[in-house]
Structure formats: structure tokens, C-alpha cells
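DEPOSITED CHAIN:
***
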Amino acid sequence: MTTDTVTGSDYGNLVRTHLTRVEQHNAAALDDVAELVLAAVEADGILLTAGAGHSLAAVAETFYRAGGLACVRPVYHPELLPMHGAISSTSAERRSGLAGEVLRESGLAPHDVLFVFSTSGVNYYPVELAQEAANRGCPVVGVTSVASSAQAPRRAGATLAEVSTVVLDNLVPPGDSTYPVDAPVTAAISTLATTFLWNLLMVRLIDKAAESGVRLPLWRSANVEGGDAANADLLRHYQTRIPQLG
């Protein structure tokens, strides 16, 4: 075995190296996104978060999460969830028109921000979400992999990165798998990298909000003493605009 061979016991280092690259690569873009989010919060706007397939894991991470923003509305359709049908979920995100149908019910406004999570960034659903939001004057944050998009079929004629206001690149390699390094077949890294990007954004928001005197609407855990009481005002404020809080 050569000294540079990566074995299973080194997998944690491989992941940490990737996340370090993600943090360094996106430093400036994260600052830009934090400014967009702070502006939305100050305008009493909503962050809409959308994805398809396994990118819905990122949407779940943004919504009703202890320590997370209360002004988040998840945007999705049951057909996009693999647990409701794996093959049909793939077909749904490749179908033109579904994004427009979903956004029509979302209440999207120019003072909101739309986050679209899609590592491949080439299917109709994520691309049309971004295009539709841009047409309405709403800024779009595309959380994607530019490298993956470059090698994937351009089904929608453009990529998510090309039609987003700001791009957060999770640097996921084409195919998502990372192990073994020489011929990867397992250990997808997109969920880890995307969640890390979201949390990097959250810590920037905390710091920037403190500097500018903006109060962030943050959830408390419902499983700690006083959590329900702390969340009650947030529920009253956002529930009419975020029906998923019901």
C-alpha cells in the first residue's frame, strides 16, 4: 500500500477535507447570501426552500429546526419525494411545468428569497423554479454543484447555477459518490456538504445580525424547558403565510 492510498479508516479525513474546501470556496458567496437573507428578514419576508429527490433532505434541514429561522416556507410536491415513489420522483423533477404549479401556491414575493437545492442542477424542476422566481423579481440562491452540472445532461436547456442570483457550490463530484477514491461507488457527500453550507450561512447570519442590530426569528427546541412558549409568538406571526406550520 502506498502512503497516499485512502482506506476506509481515512474516510473521515476525506470528508473533512471536502468540507474545508466547500467553506473556503464559498466564503464570498455566503456573505452575499447572508445580506440577502437579512434584507428579507428586515422586510418581514419569507425564505422559500425547494428541492427534489434527496435534495429534499436539505429542505427539511431548513424548516422548523431548533436554532433555525422561523421565516422558512418549504416548497415541494409529494411527487418529488422518493418515499412516495422512487422512479416517479425522478420523472417528476424532469417534467416541465411542475415548478410553475408549485410556485403559484407559494405566495412568492420580491422581498422574499428562494433557495433551490439541486446538486446536478440540470432538471426542469430546479431550473424552472429559479427562472420563475427571477421573473417575479425574487432573488434566487442556487445550492448546487457546478462540476456535476457540467457533466450532466442539460435537460432544461440551462443549469441552476446559470439562472441563480447567487450560487453556493457544494463541490460534489459527478455521480456524488466519494469512495473508494480511485473508483468511487458509495458514500454520497451531497447531503453533508449542503447541510454544512446551510449551517455556515446560519452562523454568518447570527454575526451579521448582531452587527446590524437585526433580530433574527429563531426557533427554540420544543424539547427543552420553555421551548413551546418561546416559539408561540413566532407561530402566530408566520403561520398564516407558512401553512406547513399548522
